[in-house]
What does this fold into?
Amino acid sequence: MPRLSITIGLALAIAAGVGAAYGLKNSVASEESAAANTPPAMPVETVMIERSPLRIWRSFPARLVAVDVVELRPQVSGRITEVRFRDGQTVTKGDVLFVIDPRPFEAAMQMARADLAGAKERRAFAERELVRARKLIKTKAIAARVVDERSNEFANATSTVEAAEAQVLKAEIDLDHAYVKTPISGRVSRVEVTAGNLVQAGSDAPLLTSIVSNSGIYADFDVDENTYLRFVRRTGSYVEGERAISVELLVGSEGTDVVEGHIHAFDNRIDPMTGTIRARALFRNESSRLLPGMFARLKMGSAAKQDAVLLSERAILTDQDRKYVYVVDKDSKASYREITLGATADGKRVIEKGLSPGEQVIVGGLMVVRPNAIVSPHPAKPEQTAKKDGDATPTVAGQ
It folds into this structure.
């Protein structure tokens, strides 16, 4: 019996050992199978989110308006005898553009001067008579009434001289108006009334031509209320501060020509119907390449720098009307994150909501990334990001 018990015990022990070995083999096989079925971590390029002080820019459509515009009309009536400019010519303030027959005005001026000379002689005679009468009254040689009469005659003669002087001045002005001059420097339009035609002064006077200044030009645009409050009123500045705000004008079909200027003024109220405020920027225009009526894009910078988050455009994905990115979480998994976009700069976008400093955002390898996928992040090279973004015209500047 003891020997049988020992034999049975040995058999059971051997069976248990075989079972344990078989179970261990199956466990190892399961682990190896699970490891084989787990996808490898996908290598991705990431950038670290940081905040930096930036000058935010906003873009607006603008219409160019001349600083000074003059519609030249005749101020005296007569026949046009000369036209002294060519269509589209650049003129200087004071240049004579039209001549209205000056002979009638020269004759009127000569007549007025003759009348003035006669009036002065009569006043001199009346003055001498008054002085004589005042001497004689002292000796009682004449009545006091005579002195009063002479005094009245002198006063009338003085008034006549003043009236004659006014007539001379009017004749000189009319003669000057016969030579129609430009009141501003700029570029003249075409001739609207040619030589030989009669023109009439007054409220219905015809348009002779028009001149627009070319030393500077305005750009008129509308700014929404939110941008106005964030960009302009945040600093609490008024006219002086507003005029220090930088603006850039992009002209041409591709917006390649950039002209720098500054804010000239904002309107004094916000339009309740549109929720916008009228604004006007001033730009130099010595070359006269900017013409009134031209359409352009205008960029306005914020009055002060603002802390903002910038992210490469290639990291931003679209899901219908939503924008999102993939963020690497603490378990090295790709996490879906919806974001709100702001302005742009060099192919980057300002992220207004959705990201915090210190987070890693995937910018490379997005074609194979899926939510909750395990990733192997490594920093993206700045030069690669700039090359792929490929936007050389900033709308957000950090300088």
Notes: Residues 2-37 form the longest helix (36 residues). The chain has six helices and 23 strands. The two ends are 100 Å apart (CA to CA).
